[in-house]
Amino acid sequence: MPDTATAPVTQLHLLPQTNRLRSLHTVIRDRDAARADFVQTSAQIFRLLLETALDLLPVEPREVRTPVGQTYRGLRPAAPTCGVSVARAGESIEAELRAMLPHSRIGKILLQRDKVTKLPRFYYAALPPDIATSHVLLLDPMLATGGTALAAITVLGEHGVADDDIVFVNLLSSPEGIAAVHAQHPRVRIVTSAVEERLNEDAYMIPGIGDFGDRYFGTDQPR
């Protein structure tokens, strides 16, 4: 396991590395996996990630009457939850969030990483007008160098979202990316299903998964 001591332990939430999760990772990491298998298996991992992320959000008491006339002392979210996907790869997580929270709203941030400089360029954001009073699940499958995540967090901050209210949900994280995010935003929580060994010279994670967006949306090779 890579050394993640550079990130505050309470702010990094790694899914339990169960046999089931490793079996799912075996499918999506296989370069010969069919796209349908890649998409369907990714969705299963996204559901696990979102369950963990939602459990981190604050709640408040709520009592309801059961069908047999008894009182159940339950809980409900303390504030609205908003998903914000980093286009386009982050859009792959949206369907699972909508299935779990049908009334949640989804914002978009469009950033594109320069293939030479590896730096993100901001193009567009469409966010709910009251996002500053919401808990935000920032959705992007890959946390590699951390540049895109930092740019997205900056956009959210410019719209009034506090770091404490951001949970960054991703499939794979690199030690370098985790360190980069928490160096500037130590209170942003990260939920991931795997911490990779390192980045290679092309800023791809090792052992990695390749270009997630291309594989998920089928733009990695001709028909």
Brief overview, please?
The protein is α/β, with parallel strands linked by helices.
Structural overview:
There is one protein chain. With 223 residues, the protein is of the alpha/beta class. The chain has one domain: 3-Layer(aba) Sandwich (Rossmann fold), CATH 3.40.50.2020. The chain has helices spanning 19-29, 35-55, 94-100, 147-158, 175-184, 212-217; strands spanning 12-14, 59-65, 71-77, 81-87, 105-113, 120-126, 135-139, 142-143, 166-173, 189-195, 198-199, 205-206. Strands 1, 4, 5, 6, 7, 8, 9 and 10 form an eight-stranded mixed β-sheet that branches. Strand 2 and strand 3 form a beta hairpin. Helix 1 packs across helix 2 and helix 2 (35-55) crosses helix 3 (94-100).
Alpha-beta classification: alpha/beta
Provide the CATH top-level class.
Alpha Beta
CATH fold node name? Rossmann fold
Q: Gyration radius, to the nearest Å? A: 18 Å
Helix tally equals 6
Strand content of the residues, in percent?
A: 25-35%
Count of individual beta strands: 12
Which percent bin holds the helix content? 25-40%
For the record, the CATH architecture stands as: 3-Layer(aba) Sandwich
GO molecular function, one term: uracil phosphoribosyltransferase activity
Protein name: uracil phosphoribosyltransferase
Keywords: Allosteric enzyme, Glycosyltransferase, GTP-binding, Nucleotide-binding, Transferase
Domain Phosphoribosyltransferase: 16-219
